[in-house]
Amino acid sequence: MDLYSYYKVREADQSALHRAVTAMQAELTSAHGVAPQLKRRPQPGDGVWTWMEVYPDVRDGFDAVLADAVQKHGLPALTAGPRHTEIFTDI
C-alpha cells in the first residue's frame, strides 16, 4: 500500500518545516526501510503552499508510525491546518 499525506504550509514556515520533515523522513527510512518523497504544488494558493509526503509500498500500520513521528518532530506547529492522510492499494 502507498500512503499520501498532504497539508498546507505558510510561506514563513516552509524552511523550518522542510528541515523537520527531512529529519523525520530520514529517521523513518533508517528505522522502517521506507523510501519517502516530499513534494509541493508548483504555485501557492491563498498565500499558502500545499505539500505532500509520499510513502510508497509501506506495511499495514505505518500510518500510526507516521502519526507518532509527526508529533515527535513538531510538524503540527508548522502547518496551516490539519494533515490529511490517505492510503491507496494496487489493483
Automatic annotation (TrEMBL):
InterPro entries: DUF4936. This is DUF4936 family protein. The lineage of its organism: Bacteria, Pseudomonadati, Pseudomonadota, Betaproteobacteria, Burkholderiales.
